[in-house]
Amino acid sequence: MIRGALQIVGLLVGGIGMIGTFAVTGMPQWRVSAFIESNIIVFETIWEGLWMHCIRQTNIRMQCKVYDSVLALSPDLQASRGLMCAGSVLSFFAFMVAIVGMKCTWCMQSSWQAKGYIIPTAGLLFILSGAVVLIPVCWVANTIISDFYNPLVNIAQKRELGEALYLGWVGAFCLIAAGAIFCCFCRCCEKNRSYEYSVPTHYPTHSQHLHRKTESSYSRSLYV
Q1: Among residues 8, 25, 103, 196, which one has the fewest Cβ atoms lying within 10 Å of its Cβ?
Q2: 78 close to 60: Cβ distance less than 8 angstroms
Q3: Among residues 128, 144, 124, 149, which one has the least CA distance to residue 33?
């Protein structure tokens, strides 16, 4: 019962992380325009994402434009695009492997040896996908913070952390947490199987008692 609940919790947390990864990959709010010093044009907000940049004005519909070329992106966003795509694929693959390995699916009739390979594989894939998502998010955040405090960067070009970065941290944490849950589940199953298959203590049976009793009575009759 506890093991089944642990699998469901891990699957739910991994699903949240997977959906968050998909959302972060498509969101344009990676870099947000900063309103500092003379840059106080608050009625216009600029968003920069992995696939497009958007301009949102007050009481006017938001306008977005897809990048004409990958070379138009900064080096950190170029690498982040590839890493986030890889993280999305890995998180989806880990989610599907976790579904196959769960006891409540069609794999329920399979042997524990097969599940012993499927569940830890899903856990490792979740951890790997979380690490892949965490790298570009932290990289872009570090670039934004470095440029923000760099006096050589023009004020109009300075950006702030967007909502996509915060959601990326949450999604990466959920993926890593799901992987840790599945790995702990596999560890608990190994301990239970080693306990179940340990050699039990052999106690004398009833026939052995009778045989010993017969031998003792026979030996006594020899002395009479």
Answers
A1: 196
A2: no
A3: 144
